[in-house]
Amino acid sequence: VRCTAHSGYKMSPQALEQALDEQVRVVLLNSPANPTGAVYSAEELLGLAQVLRKHDVWIICDDVYQRFVYDMDSCPDLLTVAPDLAGRIIKIDSVSKLYGMPGWRVGLLAADRRIADAVTTLNSNSISNLPAPAAAAATAALEGDQAFSIAARQRLAGQREALLEVLRGAPLLRFCEPAGAFYLFLDIGQALGRSFRGQVIGDDESFCDVLLKEFGVALIPGSFFGAAGHARLSYSGDAGKVLAGAERIKTFLGEFA
Q1: Given phi > 0 = left and psi -120 to 50 = alpha, else beta, which region is 144?
Q2: Global pTM?
Q3: What is the pLDDT of residues 221-236, one digit of tens each?
Q4: Which of the four CATH numbers 3.30.70.100, 3.90.1150.10, 3.40.50.300, 3.20.20.70 does domain 148-254 have?
Q5: Residue 196: enclosing H or E segment and its boundaries?
Q6: What residues form DSSP beta bridges with 27?
Q7: At 120, phi and psi to the nearest 5?
Q8: What distance in Å separates the CA atoms of residue 227 and residue 189, rounded to the nearest whole number?
């Protein structure tokens, strides 16, 4: 389902209904979303649930970023708002983002037992088992003091606001303010086809390439996510570097002709 800035990069019940033909077996719902930072409200999830009740599909809920939400106490999730769908919901999570362990490759799954057993069988015959050091690290993370995650959320909330303050009003740039995760999805369509220092910037990949080479700022082209004409910015790093990068993006856009 193609979502745009007009819809806040979120899927409407009508769009979901239209997409659910007889070939569809699984609906993947990612909230907070990567790459957009969009978060579905409880009301929006209820609307999607109304559609899902009418169709025999599995529902994978990607909850990896659920603790990273802003302007709300907690992130709404489909299982809470529509518990009657529990038998078809497969919740997936990870230690990668919340605990700063992206290289450890530890994933979590909660589902109906027949799904969990099948995944366990598949997993054991493809990658064997979780390595002992990674298992011990994940256990320590999950069972340890969680206060740092609150601090991380507060830090990211501050960096998000500072970043938005810099980029609001930047030329040739549009975006939806992210409600979660730690990404800002930039609509750079107005810049494409224009020239920068005599070079025509034709697509999002060339935009990101020139920005990296000329200004030392790394963005991910939106076309890598199936959204040409966009670019993803991560604001999870050092606050000073995030703001410096935002200022450089603003300068870069100001030189387009």
Answers
A1: beta
A2: 0.91
A3: 999 999 999 999 999 9
A4: 3.90.1150.10
A5: strand 195-196
A6: 59
A7: -60, -45
A8: 11
Dihedral sign for Cα 140, 143, 148, 154, please.
positive
Taken as a whole, the chain contains a residue count of 257
Which DSSP helix (H) or strand (E) runs through 143?
helix 132-143
What are the sequence ranges of the domains in the chain?
A: 5-143, 148-254
Spatial CB neighbours of 110, under 8 Å, sequence gap ≥ 6: 90, 91, 116
Among residues 145, 257, 132, the alpha carbon closest in space to that of 193 is found at 257
What dotted CATH number matches 5-143?
3.40.640.10
Q: Look up residue 224 and give its DSSP letter.
A: G
**Strand locations in 64-132, DSSP E?**
89-94, 107-110
Do you find a cis peptide bond into 178, omega within 30 degrees of 0? no
Per-residue pLDDT of 106-156, as tens digits, reads 999 999 999 999 999 998 888 878 899 999 999 999 999 999 888 999 999
Task: Give 245: exposed, middle or buried? Use CB within 10 Å, 0-12, 13-18, 19+.
Answer: buried
What's the token pair of residue 137? 């690290």
Of 159, 208, 220, which Cα lies nearest the Cα of 34?
220
- DSSP H helix total and E strand total for the chain: 8, 10
> Phi, psi (5° rounding) for residue 107?
-115, 160
Show the 3-state SS of 208-243: HHHHHHHHCCCCEEHHHHCCCCEEEEECCCCHHHHH
- CA 171, distance to chain mean position in Å, is 25
Q: Whole-angstrom Cα distance, residue 148 to residue 151?
A: 5
